[in-house]
């Protein structure tokens, strides 16, 4: 048993050197070392060896588990990148109100989204031949953030709510040839892959997107746009209407987002109300002040929500 | 009031949710049946803990093995209800049933042959596929969970076989569980449910070792092979 034990350690160190990802493994090993019971066994049961069928079968289980866990970690990492890049695209779209030309802003945001899709293509490759739902917990945050960004971009282009089919078709990646251009480095070829978007993930992304609309509404008043809040309010009502029609609220997550959506809608409706009642009385620069205070409140809340 | 395309998106999703719900209902019904059969098999297998059970292990195994035909049929029904490639979408519904069934199969194989069940044998006994690629299978985590349940059950069996006067069994069980423990140590477990369950394995090992100890210091178990002339009190 002793002998086998030291073998295991060697094996694991080798694994660590190869995969480079071994945090969990180390924990486990240290933990195992502290345990005394194996010494007790070793005195009476020295014959556990590599030839035992049980040990042999556990070797295969070990390989399978490691493979799965490594894949999961890689996906978490990629998903995190997708989240960050999508967030940046969203922040970029919010600059619409700051006086920059709308078309330029949206064009730049589009470029950012293309970069995000490259990452998503890698995720799709990683998931090739796997059951997406097995790794959904790793992929889900990034995917939702991406959908949020796409929906926001799509809406700002004046095309209404992006549909699941549109999101899905953007995530079908054609096969590429191996290119090794000096500036891009080595770009290995990959077969055609599709990243399937589960409808629930799509809906959760859409729910997040309404939060962005609320922010856009508040900031647009500050910048003097009196039309946009009413348009946004109308659109958010439609979305809210759609969400409230889901019979059993789908999942726990969906009903929680529904609650947030309701709050966002409330804020936008209040803003429209104030605009309607007082918009004609107060000079525009003062109106900006009224909403300016409301805005800082909202964004503060929003930020704590993100972090 | 809503524009047509937006409305359509939502009504499509509602459709999807309704379908999803229907599939879940059907799966739940199937899993309930499997759980029911598993309980029946467990009741039969529990017979080995009875004082008389040690003697008719063979007949108990035979009876429970026959009952596995029901499980196989129920699993094939369940697999038929499942959309292709969506095993993990509904995994939570049958996770515990799978663990229980693997445990029962492993217990049965152990009682019959003193061996650890392989994934292949388990898949065959339950009428499912061994690998994910081939269709409805038993998730590796669930399989390992089932083996940990087996260790727990064996620690009980060690105690009860002594009570029933079978003094040789605890040593055999101790060797087996020690090897199982060595096997589990090979795995790099994450901090999840499996790891938690594995942490309980040492108590089972300890319990069985205590039984072996008690039996050995009283000279009750058959002596080691090199000293065949040593006296024994019973058997």
TrEMBL record, chain A:
<protein>
    <submittedName>
        <fullName>Translin-associated protein X-like</fullName>
    </submittedName>
</protein>
<dbReference type="GO" id="GO:0005634">
    <property type="term" value="C:nucleus"/>
</dbReference>
<feature type="binding site">
    <location>
        <position position="212"/>
    </location>
    <ligand>
        <name>Mg(2+)</name>
    </ligand>
</feature>
<comment type="similarity">
    <text>Belongs to the translin family.</text>
</comment>
<feature type="region of interest" description="Disordered">
    <location>
        <begin position="17"/>
        <end position="46"/>
    </location>
</feature>
<keyword id="KW-0539">Nucleus</keyword>
<dbReference type="InterPro" id="IPR016068">
    <property type="entry name" value="Translin_N"/>
</dbReference>
<dbReference type="GO" id="GO:0005737">
    <property type="term" value="C:cytoplasm"/>
</dbReference>
<dbReference type="GO" id="GO:0004521">
    <property type="term" value="F:RNA endonuclease activity"/>
</dbReference>
<feature type="compositionally biased region" description="Basic and acidic residues">
    <location>
        <begin position="31"/>
        <end position="46"/>
    </location>
</feature>
<keyword id="KW-0460">Magnesium</keyword>
<dbReference type="InterPro" id="IPR016069">
    <property type="entry name" value="Translin_C"/>
</dbReference>
<dbReference type="GO" id="GO:0043565">
    <property type="term" value="F:sequence-specific DNA binding"/>
</dbReference>
<feature type="compositionally biased region" description="Basic residues">
    <location>
        <begin position="20"/>
        <end position="30"/>
    </location>
</feature>
<keyword id="KW-0479">Metal-binding</keyword>
<keyword id="KW-0963">Cytoplasm</keyword>
<dbReference type="GO" id="GO:0046872">
    <property type="term" value="F:metal ion binding"/>
</dbReference>
<dbReference type="Pfam" id="PF01997">
    <property type="entry name" value="Translin"/>
</dbReference>
<dbReference type="InterPro" id="IPR002848">
    <property type="entry name" value="Translin_fam"/>
</dbReference>
<dbReference type="GO" id="GO:0003723">
    <property type="term" value="F:RNA binding"/>
</dbReference>
<dbReference type="InterPro" id="IPR036081">
    <property type="entry name" value="Translin_sf"/>
</dbReference>
<feature type="binding site">
    <location>
        <position position="148"/>
    </location>
    <ligand>
        <name>Mg(2+)</name>
    </ligand>
</feature>
UniProtKB/TrEMBL annotation, chain B:
<dbReference type="GO" id="GO:0046872">
    <property type="term" value="F:metal ion binding"/>
</dbReference>
<feature type="binding site">
    <location>
        <position position="153"/>
    </location>
    <ligand>
        <name>Mg(2+)</name>
    </ligand>
</feature>
<dbReference type="GO" id="GO:0004519">
    <property type="term" value="F:endonuclease activity"/>
</dbReference>
<comment type="similarity">
    <text>Belongs to the translin family.</text>
</comment>
<keyword id="KW-0694">RNA-binding</keyword>
<keyword id="KW-0539">Nucleus</keyword>
<comment type="subunit">
    <text>Ring-shaped heterooctamer of six TSN and two TSNAX subunits, DNA/RNA binding occurs inside the ring.</text>
</comment>
<dbReference type="InterPro" id="IPR016069">
    <property type="entry name" value="Translin_C"/>
</dbReference>
<dbReference type="GO" id="GO:0016070">
    <property type="term" value="P:RNA metabolic process"/>
</dbReference>
<dbReference type="GO" id="GO:0005634">
    <property type="term" value="C:nucleus"/>
</dbReference>
<dbReference type="GO" id="GO:0016787">
    <property type="term" value="F:hydrolase activity"/>
</dbReference>
<dbReference type="InterPro" id="IPR033956">
    <property type="entry name" value="Translin"/>
</dbReference>
<dbReference type="Pfam" id="PF01997">
    <property type="entry name" value="Translin"/>
</dbReference>
<protein>
    <recommendedName>
        <fullName>Translin</fullName>
    </recommendedName>
</protein>
<keyword id="KW-0238">DNA-binding</keyword>
<dbReference type="InterPro" id="IPR036081">
    <property type="entry name" value="Translin_sf"/>
</dbReference>
<keyword id="KW-0460">Magnesium</keyword>
<comment type="function">
    <text>DNA-binding protein that specifically recognizes consensus sequences at the breakpoint junctions in chromosomal translocations, mostly involving immunoglobulin (Ig)/T-cell receptor gene segments. Seems to recognize single-stranded DNA ends generated by staggered breaks occurring at recombination hot spots.</text>
</comment>
<keyword id="KW-0255">Endonuclease</keyword>
<dbReference type="GO" id="GO:0005737">
    <property type="term" value="C:cytoplasm"/>
</dbReference>
<dbReference type="InterPro" id="IPR016068">
    <property type="entry name" value="Translin_N"/>
</dbReference>
<keyword id="KW-0378">Hydrolase</keyword>
């Amino acid at each position: 048993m002793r002998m086998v034990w030291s073998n295991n350690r060697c094996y694991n160190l080798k694994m660590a050197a190869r995969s480079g990802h071994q945090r969990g493994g180390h924990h486990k090993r240290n933990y195992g070392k502290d345990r005394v019971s194996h010494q007790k066994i070793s005195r009476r049961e020295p014959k556990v060896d590599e030839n035992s069928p049980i040990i042999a079968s556990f070797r295969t289980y070990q390989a399978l588990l490691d493979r799965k866990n490594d894949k999961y970690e890689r996906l978490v990492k990629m998903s995190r990148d997708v989240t960050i890049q999508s967030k940046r695209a969203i922040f970029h779209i919010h600059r619409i109100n700051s006086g920059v030309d709308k078309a330029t802003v949206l064009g730049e945001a589009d470029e950012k989204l293309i970069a995000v899709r490259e990452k998503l293509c890698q995720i799709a490759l990683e998931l090739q031949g796997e059951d997406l739902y097995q790794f959904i917990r790793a992929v889900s945050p990034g995917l939702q953030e991406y959908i949020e960004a796409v929906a926001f971009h799509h809406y700002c282009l004046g095309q209404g709510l992006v549909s699941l089919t549109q999101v899905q078709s953007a995530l079908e990646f054609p096969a590429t040839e191996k290119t090794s251009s000096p500036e891009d480095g080595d770009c290995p070829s990959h077969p055609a892959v599709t990243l399937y978007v589960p409808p629930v993930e799509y809906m959760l992304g859409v729910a997040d997107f309404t939060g962005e609309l609320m922010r856009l509404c508040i900031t647009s008043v500050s910048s003097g746009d009196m039309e946009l809040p009413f348009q946004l309010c109308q659109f958010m009502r439609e979305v809210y209407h759609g969400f409230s029609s889901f019979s059993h609220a789908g999942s726990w997550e969906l009903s929680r987002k529904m609650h947030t959506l309701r709050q966002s809608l409330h804020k936008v409706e209040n803003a429209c109300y104030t605009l309607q009642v007082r918009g004609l009385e107060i000079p525009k620069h003062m109106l900006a002040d009224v909403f300016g205070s409301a805005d800082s409140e909202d964004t503060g809340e929003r930020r704590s929500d993100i972090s | 009031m809503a524009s047509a395309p937006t409305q359509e998106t939502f009504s499509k999703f509602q459709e999807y949710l309704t379908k999803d719900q229907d599939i879940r209902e059907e799966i739940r019904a199937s899993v309930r049946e499997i759980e029911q059969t598993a309980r029946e098999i467990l009741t039969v297998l529990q017979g080995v803990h009875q004082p008389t059970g040690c003697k008719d292990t063979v007949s108990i195994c035979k009876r429970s093995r026959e009952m596995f035909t029901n499980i196989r049929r129920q699993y094939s029904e369940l697999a038929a209800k499942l959309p292709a490639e969506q095993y993990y979408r509904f995994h939570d519904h049958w996770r515990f049933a799978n663990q229980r069934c693997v445990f029962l199969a492993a217990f049965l194989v152990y009682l019959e042959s003193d061996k650890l069940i392989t994934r292949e044998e388990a898949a065959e006994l339950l009428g499912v596929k061994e690998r994910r690629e081939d269709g409805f299978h038993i998730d590796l985590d669930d399989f390992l969970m089932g083996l940990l349940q087996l260790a727990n059950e064996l620690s009980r069996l060690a105690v009860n076989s002594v009570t029933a006067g079978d003094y040789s069994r605890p040593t055999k069980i101790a060797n087996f569980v020690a090897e199982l423990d060595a096997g589990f140590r090979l795995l790099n477990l994450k901090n999840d449910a499996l790891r938690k369950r594995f942490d309980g394995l040492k108590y089972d090992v300890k319990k069985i070792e205590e039984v072996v100890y008690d039996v050995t210091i009283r000279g009750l178990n058959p002596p080691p092979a090199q000293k065949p002339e040593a006296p024994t009190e019973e058997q």
